[in-house]
Amino acid sequence: MDEQKKKIDEIIKEGNSFLDRKLYDEAIECYTEAINLDPNCTDAYFYRGNAYYDKGLYDKAIENYDKAIELDPSYTYAYNNRGNAYRHKGLYDKAIENYDKAINLDPSFTYAYNNRGVAYHHKGLYDKAIENYDKAIELDPNCTDAYNNRGVAYHHKGLYDKAIENYDKAINLDTSYAKAYFNRGIAYENKGFTITALENWSNFIRGAIKISW
Question: How far apart are CA 32 and CA 56, in angstroms?
């Protein structure tokens, strides 16, 4: 490994450390420094896109994912994350196009199916969403997000028992999964079980407090 490549790798590693600690501006500075040293550093654009995404600056994130994909058209994670950015902008069809590309490149990419399911859900296509969550769970039976999201899709179809089954599964896999408690509480409330709903919301509040710490 030449000295410049080694230096760039160290800078990116430092940026990732900042990103893990939610120090987004410091992370962006590191990735920008790496790009200044090597304007063709795909990973630096990708990670800088992630930092902008986490800051809620989706257009800036997309610009960086665009560049990463321009440099490496097979960068699966860049397509997935660009899909997430488009989804947060409410551009669900653009999001789905990117998830499709990620899945075509890697048919075993669990979270691309999960994320495509979320995009279909936002379009009100709950059965299409469930198909994608099913595939994510087939690929990874421990994917808590897919169980929770599939529960939400069944909930919107009015199938509260099936929703609760999925929330149960998510919670069994991760007893601190606050969102699943919240969603299960709503399902129980819709079934008329107010006390059980309140118990779930209490667990949600405890989990949310723990997450905040």
Answer: 18
C-alpha–C-alpha distance, residues 203 and 178, integer Å: 7
Instruction: Give pairs for 33-40: CB < 8 Å, separation 24+.
Output: 34/8, 37/4, 37/7, 37/8, 37/11, 38/4, 38/8, 40/71
- Which pLDDT score is estimated for 70? 98
What HEC string does 69-136 produce?
Answer: HHHCCCCHHHHHHHHHHHHHCCCHHHHHHHHHHHHHHCCCCHHHHHHHHHHHHHCCCHHHHHHHHHHH
Q: Is the pLDDT of residue 124 over 50?
A: yes
CB 128 within 8 A of CB 120: yes
Q: How far apart are CA 152 and CA 170, in angstroms?
A: 12
Cα(13)–Cα(8) distance, integer angstroms:
9
- Closest Cα partner for 132 from 160, 95, 159? 95
158 by Cβ neighbours in 10 Å (0-12 / 13-18 / 19+) ranks as exposed
Q: Higher model confidence: residue 206 or residue 153?
A: 153
**Contact present, 187 and 163 (Cβ < 8 Å):** yes
Alpha-carbon dihedral angle through residues 109, 170, 82, 128, given to the nearest 10 degrees: 80
Domain spans in the chain, listed from the N-terminal domain onward: 1-72
Q: Is the pLDDT of residue 209 over 60?
A: no
Give the pLDDT score at 207: 57
Kindly state which CATH superfamily the domain 1-72 is placed in.
Answer: Tetratricopeptide repeat domain (1.25.40.10)
